[in-house]
Amino acid sequence: MPSPLDRVRSALMDEGLQEALLRAATNNQVKVESLLRERPELAEAARRARRAKDEAIGRLEELIDEAMRSLRAINAEPHYAETPEEAREAVARIVGSGKLVVMSKSMAAEEAGIREYLEELGNEVWETDLGQLLVQLEGGRPMHTIAPAVHMTRERALRLVNEKLGANLPEDAGIEEIAGAARRFLREKIVKADVGISGANALAADTGAIVLVENEGNIRLVTTASPIHIAVVPVDKIVPTLQDALTVAIAQAGYAGLYPPTYINVIAGPSSTADIEQVRVWGAQGPKELHVVLLDNGRLRARETPLRDQLRCIRCGRCQFECPVWVHTANNWGGPVYGGPMGLNWTAITWSMEEASKLAFLCLGCGRCDEACPVEIPLSRLIRWLKTQAHRPGRS
Amino acid sequence: MLDPKLVSDLVARYMRDTGLPVPAPKEALYRWAEPLRLPREGPRYLYTGGLYQLMPYIQAMVKYLEKMEEGRAGRLALGLAGRLAGLGGLAKAVARPDKGLVAYSESVLRGIAGHLRRAGVEYAYLYEDDLYSGVILHDLGLDEDFTRHANMVYRRLRERGVESVITVDPHTTHMLRSVYPKYVDGYSLEVKTYIELLDEAGYQAKSGGEAVIHDPCLYARFEGVVEQPRRLLSRSGVEAKEPRRSRRMTYCCGGPIEGLAPSLSKRIARIRMDELRRVSSRIVVMCPICYANLSSVAPEGVEVVDLALVLGEPGA
């Protein structure tokens, strides 16, 4: 595996990547800026999201317990995983082997390596978010939090669906046709899938409700079409109430530049019906089982360090699009999952302080990410702190 | 890309030995003021922190490191220079700063001194007590060395009876106003940039034409110096134009990582240069790092100039 700094080097040599990133970042910057100007309510939502997240971080253990109780009360099954390995095992126990599994994009699932693990166990697993599917087909990793295939041009995407999905599209096929080919391929998988796996934008401790924001419609399908739905939720996504969870979703969509979001999903338990004799049974048109895997992976411990502030992150990805360094590297500047300003801190929390502290030296300290962050995470200050960690005795 | 540990070790050693981040003669910091014969005592002290003066030496060092970066043999030699054999050889190689850059930096500082005098701001100069602020130690996360250095600088200033300083660049301003207080017990200094003081005094220079403003990151996002330079320019008859990314959302010149990742740094500078020159062929900067990095990628016909010079040559 190439070292993180080697990945940065090769990203700088990749002219196609440079062009794709510059276009995407400029478009996103202009879009978000005008959205925020036209809709002051988004800044208000961000302020409320910040308060809710701060409260949640302050009493996280308590809220984890409350969320697990609430989940049981709505007939969902909570699982608690301290490490990525435990999360993988929890999911593997539910799925088993020889199954067809569909996933909607989840960075927590990436973090736990769930797709690869399920494949190793003999399952057929497909990503259903178009960008994430392209990343899966190329054998790569997501290059942005909400736009995983941000590094790809139309030509590269076309080649992938033709070669890997046998789409047979002509050379001049447009983006719509590529999306159409993916849709045709995935629709059949989604309908037949045994298990659907999603992430979450937020989980409400008071009700156990999961909130998911999207535009593609794949999350709706993945979380309802299969008899079993598994949500992988990092514990920093827990907020006190369902109102808070919706606020987080609105703020995330706004600062990602996708507002109004096409869909906001609220999932509070498996599907049920009481249409016959008013007796409630589980498993109607939606799943019969809902499992929620709560993943810690360093988050509780991070509260004792300056990285505590990073736990407020709502994953809008704006700091990435606004960062002058990220615009040339994408998530190649980062660890195996997360990259860019917020990604260096997440890498330190969930993977390796040592690697994150080395990568931190590419930060300009310009503070554009601080300005961009809807929940006022002092990102550049935290990244500078990562640098101080590189000089601690024992680090070479 | 250079090994951050190696660069950190080099810088830390120079700082411990000489109080400067790169090999440079001590008088390089106050030579600019010699012809001006500024008073040595006053209600406020001009504290440059040396960034303008050191910029030519830093540039020379970066060029040397870039050459080293190219080959494995070079990297080994560099490692040896830094770790074992004294720093003498390296010092000789980089102690020849670009004369044009030295003259530029000194003319900016003299310009600032002149503007302050004409605006009626009473001040003295620190001369040999105008020490480097240690900003690079902070930027590299070398907190122990930075704490030691910041306390030393503060002690020297207080021993000189300084209670109020005038700063001239965003990095030094940020250090003294927002960072030192976290590292120095009982810290108490009033810190104002010359830009703020000129603006408060309603200063009006004789100038003209148009220019696009490149806000330095630290002034705009951390120190609230945003509208002051615009007011100064407009009062002085300069039409100040805005690039797409300006004020609090200004875009970095790439300078801060020049020593570690020169090629990435240049790419960032080019992106910013393209954005600025579309608005005007005259670009106003307020920081020596922005000047060095942007002017290194400026195409012919595009002029990068410090605010102090846009406001008019000293004596104008």
Folded structure, characterized:
The complex is a heterodimer of chains A (396) and B (316). The mean pLDDT of chain A is 95. With 396 residues, chain A is α/β, with parallel strands linked by helices. Chain A contains 19 helices and twelve strands. Chain A has two domains: 125 residues, Orthogonal Bundle (Fumarate Reductase Iron-sulfur Protein, Chain B, domain 2), CATH 1.10.1060; 246 residues, 3-Layer(aba) Sandwich (Rossmann fold). By secondary structure, chain B is α/β, with parallel strands linked by helices. Chain B has two domains: 194 residues, no CATH class; 106 residues, Rossmann fold. Chain B is 51% helix and 9% strand. In chain B, helix 2 packs across helix 3. Chain B is globular and about 45 Å long. The interface between A and B is medium-sized, with 34 and 33 residues.
**Largest protein interface, residues of each chain:** A-B, 34 and 33 residues
For the biggest β-sheet of chain B, the strand order reads: 2-1-3-4
Query: Judging from the principal axes of the Cα atoms, what is the shape of chain B?
Result: globular
Share of helix of chain B, binned: 40-55%
Count of DSSP strands of chain B: 8
Summarize the structure in short.
The complex is a heterodimer of chains A (about 400) and B (about 325). By secondary structure, chain A is α/β, with parallel strands linked by helices.
